[in-house]
């Protein structure tokens, strides 16, 4: 399976790049926006392509040529200004979705944020505009013709992954190591039970495969 | 025709409030977010209702009870921060659209921005996030079950209206007095040729009715 990874330079993205090398059924290409990032990835044995989420749909579609699946884990995160939240997390995602349709990519996995689908749980905090941007990016994906999976992780931790998760609806929140998010993304690629599904993701008691099979 | 006006306190909104009084076929209710705005409008003979675009869909649907049409001309404009652009221009609009569907309002007129539908004309300027927010609000409306009209005016001027417009596609831009935008919104309410349409709006040579009939 040829997979284009958008956001390869992010913290979850870096885990995905590393973990994908252990999977024989995944051939990963990393999309990054700086030439030196391409060179660093290639020096590390990772295929890489230069493209920018603030560029055109055509540019993104070109980067997706021959991809069977797209993983979107790019994001301004809530640390940059809300202007970038609109241009990257919302419109960049929307353009990637349009590009995937244009390039005839069948599968699209979105890394979102816990409860992004449920406005009622959002609190009046500086993260609220980020939640709204993710909310609408996810809705654009769900309304597309792509076979999507929307993974909405809880508070992201840098601790090593446990390999044990819960997948479902968690309005009360939760947390999860970035490494487990990355592994869940990769397992979802080939787990048909995740097709046309969105779910919150936090640390739990089940293996990733079991948790996804029980969605 | 019972019309709920969202953004009654804005510059275009104030023209709409005034001009609607001259139209026998329009009974306007102004939605504003502060109690003193309700009182000021009522003192001026305008029906008013208190509701907030940053509130819930249910709150907005309640304000829309018995409305035949909604006019959306609220907006942070590009002068407030991009956080409000997401929460008002994008998600506030999305919630108003959901509320209109919920309240069984048939008609929805959106005041957008010239070329908001066409990313290729957007320049790298501080207004770009605003354009992206309007772009996606308009797309949400066009994908809804509402009978919509999306009016995308050019650079807004405070000069008195001329009553003469052009409606169509103007990638090269243009300008128009706010009063003419307001009048075009009101004429569109009952002009069937504007149903399920979006158009750029700039100053021109035709009467508003003629320009809309020639869309």
Percent range for helical residues of chain A? Answer: 25-40%
Report the biggest beta sheet of chain A as strand number plus sense, adding barrel if it closes: 9 strands, mixed
Distance between the termini of chain A: 23 Å
Uncertain residue ranges of chain A: none
Strand content of chain A: 15-25%
> What is the mean predicted local confidence, pLDDT of chain A?
96
Identify the overall geometry of chain A.
globular
Backbone CA Rg of chain A: 16 Å
How would you write the strand order of the largest sheet of chain A? 3-2-1-4-5-6-10-8-11
**Oligomeric assembly:** homodimer
Largest interface: A-B, 23 and 23 residues
The sequence of SSEs of chain A as H and E is EHEHEHEHEHEEEEHEEH
How would you describe what is shown here?
The structure is a homodimer of 215-residue chains. Helix content of chain A is 37%, strand content 24%. Chain A is an alpha/beta fold and 215 residues long. In chain A, helix 1 (11-20) packs across helix 6 (178-189), helix 3 crosses helix 4 and helix 4 runs parallel beside helix 5. The A-B interface holds A 56-57, 81-83, 85-87, 90-91, 94-95, 119-120, 126, 128-129, 132-133, 135-136, 140, 143 and B 56-57, 81-83, 85-87, 90-91, 94-95, 119-120, 126, 128-129, 132-133, 135-136, 140, 143.
